[in-house]
Amino acid sequence: MTLMKTAWAVAVATTLAATSLSAHADKKEVVQKILSSQQGALDDMSRNVAEQPARQLAMGARQILVQGVPEDKREATAKLVDAEIKKYLDGAIPAVRASAGKLSTSVLGPIYEEKFSEDELKQLQAMLESPVLKRYQSLLPEMSNALLEKVVADARPQVTPKLQTAEKNIRAILDKATGGKLSQGEGKPATKK
Predict the structure, then answer these.
(1) Residue 21: its pLDDT value, please?
(2) CA contacts within 13 A on the Cβ side of 1
């Protein structure tokens, strides 16, 4: 009888283990589908991560162009700067995108598996693949732009005077700090102390 109980216990344990492995494999498969459906968001994130330093470089270069480069050389210099920024982006965006693609499975996969049941993952997958959600997401840029346009138009009368005052005050601070170099560039006489 002991042999029979042992055989039965082994059979039950094997069945449970196989079921558990199958469920785990099913869960991993659903997680992979979710990660695949989020590729567009990963690409957007990658682009933003790579573009942020480029925006900072462009802003800094623009300031130097306006303040330090003679007017007759600005356009040519700006084109050279733009070419360098484009070269950077051409290399950085694919590198960040590849890194995000490589790491999304190892970083996000375990989080999905730990925080969601298989049923919840299937619901999430269905939601993410929903035609209504896809249509909504495709309309977001249009809706955001429409709202942004109205907000800018509505807020402009209140914001413009504040911006002009800030620009004037910052220019005065910088002019004083540079010994009048900014006002000299405008054809105004520099005041010396």
Answers:
(1) 45
(2) 0
Q: What is the pLDDT of residues 98-150, one digit of tens each?
A: 999 889 999 999 999 999 999 999 999 999 989 998 898 888 889 888 888 99
Please say if the pLDDT value at position 175 is more than 90: no
Taking the C-alpha atoms of residue 80 and residue 169, their distance in angstroms, rounded to an integer, is 32
CA distance 75 to 84: 14
Closest C-alpha to 118, from 40, 33, 178: 33
Contacts of 121 (CB under 8 A, 6+ apart): 27, 30, 31, 34, 112
CA distances from 98 to 42, 90, 91, 93, 110 (A): 10, 13, 11, 9, 19
| Predicted confidence band of residue 26 (pLDDT cuts 50, 70, 90) | confident
Q: What are phi and psi of 27, to 5 degrees?
A: -65, -45
Q: How far is residue 68's CA from residue 59's CA, in Å, rounded to a whole number? A: 14
153: CB partners within 8 A, 6+ apart: none
* Three-state SS at 169: helix
For residues 135 and 143, give the distance between their C-alpha atoms in angstroms, rounded to a whole number: 12
pTM: 0.58
Predicted pLDDT of residue 188: 47
- Check: CB of residue 190 under 8 Å from CB of residue 180: yes
